[in-house]
Amino acid sequence: AGQRLAAYLAIAGHPVRRSTVAAAIWPDVDEARARANLRSTVCRLGALAPVVDATGTSLSLAPDVDLDVLELQQAVTAARAGVAELTVPRRGVGLKLLPGWDEEWVELERERVRPLALHLVDDVIRLSVQDGRHRVSAWTCDGTRRLATALVPAG
After folding, report:
1. Is residue 3 a contact partner of residue 42, using CB atoms and an 8 Å limit?
2. C-alpha distances in angstroms, 42 versus 16, 64, 85?
3. Using one digit for the tens of pLDDT, what is the confidence trace for 88-121?
4. Which residue ranges in the chain fall short of pLDDT 70?
5. CB atoms within 10 A of CB 89
6. Residue 58: closest CA among 79, 38, 76, 33
7. C-alpha distances in Å from residue 144, one per residue of 72, 121, 150, 154
8. Residues 149, 134 contacting (CB under 8 angstroms)
9. What one-character-per-residue DSSP string does 96-119 give?
C-alpha cells in the first residue's frame, strides 16, 4: 500500500485530499475502511522514510523525492526547445509506467506518459543523426526505421 500511495502522489504532482487518495487506492472497500487504511499506510510509510507530506486534509509527495516521470517530462521539454545536449533520464525511458499494476489511475497516467517517452526517443534519435553522433539505442520501431534510414546510404 505504501508503494501505491507514493506512486499516486507522484502521479498527482500536487497535494491531494485524503478522501480522494483513499478512494483511489482502496476502491473496493467502504469510505471509512479506506480512510483507516490510508492513515495506517501514512503512519507506516512515515516510519520508513519521509516521502509523504501530510496535513489534516491533504497528502503530497515530499519535495526532495526524485521522480523519473518528472525527469522524462523535463527531457521532452528540453528536446522540444532544441537543447543541444539532450540528456536521457538516468533511469532510461521505460515505455510502460508501473508494469504489473492494473489500477484505473495507473492506466490513465500510462496513456499520458507513453507518448512523452516516445517523443523523447524520437528526439534523441533525430538530434543524434543531425549531429552525426549515431550513438543511440533505438527503442521504438519508428526510431529504428529513422536511425536505419540515416545510417544506410541512399541507393
Report:
1. no
2. 13, 17, 40
3. 555 544 556 777 888 888 888 888 777 776 776 6
4. 68-73, 76, 79-80, 82-96, 117, 120-121, 124-155
5. 20
6. 38
7. 20, 10, 10, 16
8. no
9. SSSTT---HHHHHHHHHHHHHHHH
Q: Pick from 146, 126, 10: which is nearest to 72 by CA?
A: 10
C-alpha cell at 10: 507522484
Q: Which residues contact 80 (CB under 8 A, 6 or more apart)?
A: 119, 123
C-alpha pair distances (Å), 44 with each of 2, 26, 63, 113 = 8, 17, 19, 29
Residue at grid coordinates 507514493: 6
Q: Tell me the three cell numbers of residue 46.
A: 512515515
Helices (H), 2-133: 2-12, 18-25, 31-48, 68-80, 104-131
pTM: 0.62
C-alpha cell at 91: 533511469
> What is the bridge-based pairing of β-strands 52-54 and 58-61?
antiparallel
